[in-house]
Design brief:
Helix 22 packs antiparallel against helix 23. This protein is mainly alpha-helical. It has a 4-stranded mixed sheet with strand order 5-4-3-6. The chain has a two-stranded antiparallel ribbon with strand order 1-8. The protein is flat, with a radius of gyration of 43 Å. Helix content is 60%, strand content 5%. It contains 30 helices and 8 strands. A hairpin with a 2-residue loop joins strand 4 and strand 5 (203-210).
């Protein structure tokens, strides 16, 4: 085979692997490329918006201070004088009259109600014999009128004409409009006039009225009396008119806030902004002169416009983003440290990186030109690192912290103080939350991190030889950064726990409470399964602690692995007394009942919103192993039996914790059949159980080493020996199984493990001991 052929084969193999790698990690690649494109666009936008990265410290040029140097504009700059423009817009808005609308429905309703009163009053006048009966009839229909008013109407010489005059006066005022002046909302409007809008058929009539001439509820009495007197009524009769029509008046000219706001916006938009132009080479601030408000505004505009085109910032930021993308692809798509991250975890890490990057690039390049030792304290890196570590609980977060620091380095124009602070503060955040088990512990962790941040920041200043002022204020800012990060983690964590459905330490501690409703229900419904689960949890927790896995996850997985048995507890031996329900069932039906507890357990777990890792343990704690007892019974009754009909529906364990719970479940169930379970018997029996699981391929996906299997076995033996109160073995002591007298006549073999999952004794016939 020549060299050319070897090279062609190499490239064919390489291209095939790359193709498989690409499609295998397609979602991850799309996620990271999208993040790169978005962050690159934001970086480019900020670059052109800020026009460079001039580092003028505005804090050195406060109003009233004497400038120590000349500052000259290096290019033409124009900006809007916001204060002058604001004053002009306010003046324009003060000329805008408020808009009110005439409500025809209210007007017609009020008129109709008064006419109903007049009709009833006229009927009562004709039917009543005296003023008392007239008053009673009127008050029955209109309780608002007292006897004084009804008596006055009854005693009139021509009450019908009087009432008709009341209607005319009322209609005239309602047609004019009773205006409702709001208590608030008109402060910035024209204080003298308003616009009233009427509908005349399909035509809109807009009328401007003086506020002083408006009819309101406050001056309504005077308007009615004046109208009555103009019709020739005496003062007493005019007041009687008011007493009659007053209850029927309604405010029918109402304030229209939306239309008024549109008029204000139009008036504001019509004002041309007042522009200030600074020409190139014009002195913005003169050395030795006192800085005025105008000088300060000019300087701020110059800083925002930028003093130099710093293309290095753009190139360096995009290059760093490319490097971060490459590192993150490797981090997300392969088992760099311990495990491949779930896609939801990848999304969270990517989003948190993007947030920190955007904040870093914004505070360092937009707005006022803050010094690096100031804007670094505004970057929420510790918050994101601590949140990531608590949610993911994986050492890959350490690499994520390095990636985050590199991103900040590119975003802040290669600021070493920002890079070091983000890196070291992130490591410190991981350390302080590593041992927290309760949410209240986060408060103490926040205090600790705030103190560590002070030391880290001082170290960063010393290492980078950064000049600084106001050390005390900087230290307070560093402490506040750490403390606020811890407090925000405490507040935001429940939200992200539910969004990611992740098994955080805090969530697992809450789930490990045996006083929870589901555990109490299990204790009452399936007490045998409850006791079995408690011991399985203890076995799994101790074993995981020995091999460096997550003991808390294993404990919770042990507690919940058999919650599917609660619906049919009587079909499982640990919950039975003298009667075995499987005696009345066929092997297939018995196997179906036993298999179903896995599916039911997963369904209950999802209803309880248990973390996905706990659900995985429930679904995998039997793997896809065969229910040997009922499979053997079926073979006796049928010729062709499919083992899959008697196999559990799950997959082999995919994590160490899940595998340990499987082994603990099998060991605890099987070892209960042992007579006089000594240490040596337990060791031998558990080893056989483990070998059986390995032989059946149930541990192929769990990444357990032979050393870890040995540690698990030893932990199980110690825990079970203590549980069964096995006596201590002395030197040269022989195993009871090796004594001839013990072996003779022993009709029950202790070497055959009970079937996993349905505990020993889940047979068609109960064993007699």
């Amino acid at each position: 085979m020549n060299k050319q052929t070897l090279e062609n084969n190499f490239f064919l193999i390489l291209s095939g692997k790359l193709k498989r790698y690409f499609f295998k990690n397609l979602k991850t690649i799309i996620l990271l490329v999208s993040a790169f494109v978005v962050l690159s666009c934001i970086t480019t936008g900020i670059f052109f918006t800020s026009g460079g990265s001039a580092k003028i410290k505005l804090s050195d040029y406060g109003v009233g201070r004497v400038s120590d140097r000349d500052i000259v504009a290096v290019k033409d700059i124009s900006y809007v004088d916001e204060e002058a423009t604001r004053l002009r817009r306010e003046a324009s808005q003060r000329l805008v009259p408020a808009e009110f609308k005439f409500n025809t429905n209210i007007t017609q309703g009020a008129k109709r109600r008064l006419k109903e009163f007049v009709i009833i009053a006229e009927d009562c006048l004709s039917s009543s014999n005296d003023s008392l009966s007239f008053a009673l009839e009127i008050q029955e229909a209109f309780p608002v009128f007292d006897q004084k008013v009804t008596s006055a109407v009854y005693s009139l010489k021509d009450p019908e004409n009087f009432l008709n005059s009341c209607v005319k006066i009322f209609d005239a005022i309602m047609d004019e409009g009773v205006v409702s002046i709001p208590d608030a909302g008109m402060e910035s409007l024209n204080p003298s006039v308003i616009d009233c809008v009427y509908m005349d058929g399909k035509n809109i009539i807009r009328e401007t009225k003086e506020i002083s001439s408006l009819i309101t509820l406050e001056n309504l009495e005077a308007e009615v009396i004046m109208g009555a007197e103009e019709m020739g009524f005496s003062n007493d009769e005019s007041r009687l008119v008011y007493s009659i029509v007053n209850p029927f008046f309604k405010e029918n000219v109402l304030f229209a806030p939306e239309e008024t706001e549109k008029k204000l916006e139009a008036a504001s938009a019509s004002v041309t902004p007042i522009m200030v132009v600074i020409e190139k080479d014009q002195k913005i601030i003169r050395k030795g002169y006192i800085i005025t408000d105008e000088n300060r505004r000019d300087l701020e505009a110059a800083v925002k416009a930028g003093f130099r085109d710093d293309w290095f910032f753009l190139y360096s930021s995009i290059s760093v983003l490319l490097g971060v993308l490459a590192v993150t692809v490797c981090l997300f798509s392969s088992k760099i440290i311990t495990r491949k991250l779930a896609f939801s975890e990848q999304v969270f890490l990517t989003a948190s990186f993007a947030l920190v990057y955007i904040v870093a690039v914004s505070v360092s390049h937009l707005g006022t030109a803050l010094a690096p030792e100031i804007y670094t304290l505004l970057i929420p890196s510790s918050l994101m690192v601590m949140m990531a570590y608590i949610l993911i609980k994986d050492t890959s977060v350490v690499i994520y912290t390095v990636v985050l620091a590199l991103g900040v380095l590119g975003a802040t124009e290669m600021s070493m103080i920002s890079f070091l602070f983000v890196l070291l503060s992130g490591f410190a955040g991981i350390r302080v939350v590593n041992k927290t088990e309760r949410r209240i512990d986060m408060v103490w962790a926040s205090f600790v991190l705030s103190l560590i941040n002070i030391l880290i920041y001082i170290l960063c200043i010393v290492v980078t030889k950064t000049e600084f002022q106001h050390l005390i204020l900087i230290c307070i800012g560093a402490a506040f950064n750490g403390f606020l990060s811890g407090i925000l983690v405490t507040g935001l964590l429940p939200v992200f726990e539910n969004l990611l459905n992740t098994a955080t330490t805090f969530k697992l501690m809450e789930l490990s409470d045996l006083n929870s409703p589901i555990m109490k229900k299990m204790l009452l419904a399936a007490p045998g399964s409850y006791s079995h689960s408690i011991l399985v949890a203890s076995l799994a927790e101790n074993a995981c602690r020995e091999i460096g896995a997550d003991p808390l996850l294993a404990r919770v997985g042990g507690y919940y692995h058999d919650i599917g048995k609660m619906d049919q507890p009587e079909y499982f031996t640990e919950n039975q007394t003298d009667y075995n329900k499987h005696d009345d069932l066929s092997p297939r039906l018995s196997a179906t009942v036993i298999r179903s507890h896995v599916k039911l357990g997963v369904e209950k777990a999802r209803q309880l919103h248990l973390p996905e890792k706990v659900i995985d343990i429930i679904s995998e704690h039997h793997g896809n192993s065969v229910i040997a007892v009922f499979y053997s019974e079926a073979l006796k009754q049928e010729e062709n039996v499919n083992p899959e009909d008697f196999s559990y529906p799950g997959e082999p364990p995919s994590s160490k914790e899940s595998a340990v719970v499987m082994l603990a479940d099998t060991a605890e169930a099987a070892c209960r059949s042992l007579q006089r379970p000594s240490v040596s018997r337990l060791e031998k029996f558990i080893k056989e159980l483990f070998d059986k699981k390995i032989e059946n391929g149930q541990l192929d996906n769990a990444d357990l080493t032979f050393r870890e299997m040995d540690l698990i076995r030893q932990s199980f033996v110690q825990t079970l020996a203590a549980y069964y109160h096995s006596r201590v073995e002395y030197p040269n002591q022989k195993d009871p199984d090796e004594l001839p007298s013990e072996n003779q006549g022993n009709s029950v073999s202790q070497g055959n493990p009970a079937p996993s999952g349905n505990s020993s004794g889940n047979t068609k016939k109960k064993k007699e001991e």
